[in-house]
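TOPIC: backbone geometry
CONTENTS: sequence, structure tokens:
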Amino acid sequence: MGSQLQQYLPVLVLLLVAVNFAGGTLVLSVLAGKLGRRTKTKDIPYECGMLPEGPGNSRLSVKFYLVALLFVLFDIEVVFMYPWAVIYKEMLRENAALILGGMVSFLGVLFVGYLYALKKGAFDWTK
């Protein structure tokens, strides 16, 4: 039992170092920030040496967020497919129908979602 807990000692040390580094960096940032003087000129956004025009935070189209969510969806597909591909040969010997059926059903649901997004015009940037 003791040797199993000793295996986690380097992880605990790494966690303590990371927490102390993050906390120390934050404290040092606050202390260094109080030493500097802030003026109105220093607080305006810098745009290639010119004075800024218009609002600094313009709103993005909803299409941008929709495409970003679709990207995340298809990116997660790859995350699920990679471990499946790694153990495919090993699992093929044990239960071929289960592993292939699971991936085909997963891809089927994903394909139905892709068709739905296509039908709704999620990939059409001209709207």
Remarks:
- The mean pLDDT is 82.
- The chain has five helices and no strands.
